[in-house]
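Researcher: I'd like a structural prediction for the single chain below. Treat it as a standalone chain; there are no partners to consider.
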Amino acid sequence: MGCGSVSLKILNGICLFWFTVAGIGLAVYGGITTYLILLTNSQQVIAEYGTVIPSVLTVILGTFLIIFICLGCCGICRESKGCLETYSAFLLLLALAHLAIGGYCVYTYQNSTEYTSSLRLQMALDVMKNVENYKSNPGAMDGVQFWFTCCGANGPSDYNRLGLRDLPHDNAYPGSCCTNGKICSRDAGDLHTTGCAELVYEFTQVTNIFLGYLSLAVGATEILAALLGICLSCCIWRKYRSHWR
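Model: Treating it as a single chain, here is the predicted structure.
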């Protein structure tokens, strides 16, 4: 093969290495954010606003990307025109999916004021509801307070105001509100003083915006890699055609 074909092989190999890293990264990061969003967002928010959908789709598309890498490796190593064309076609489909997800996330979570305002309000109401129900269902709030090192919806005072705690004394707070993981008081100095409602919203918003830009970047490189794969397939076809003459 000529210098152009060798260069295309090298470029396609670089793309495959990048996609291996990107696919694993997308699957792992998407899995972590899926878990945290399911843990911290209420079922109503997830069902109504679909906050976990971008993370779930990131895991799925990252897994598919890893699978399609095998086709690309086979096409490059064996100079298989069919494998390269199939690999390129699937990359284009993945690129469209990534660009669609990325555009949706960036527009919805960064530019849609109506959506984000409604989401922030609903999350604040849900976190406050979990605080009010802490005595009967402590797990819903403990998970949020542990992961985000926060306490209450707007702060520890929510527990004092509601008076619904089942704790040893009036100045005590749940262990998930404390740095030592045990029941503590405000005077001890190890109480988390930040409210959880805004942190839950910011985490969900920032996570989905980041996933949006990441999807756009991966989608753009997938289009480039698909074009490189098609070019290499054409070089292989010309090589075999010259042998037939």
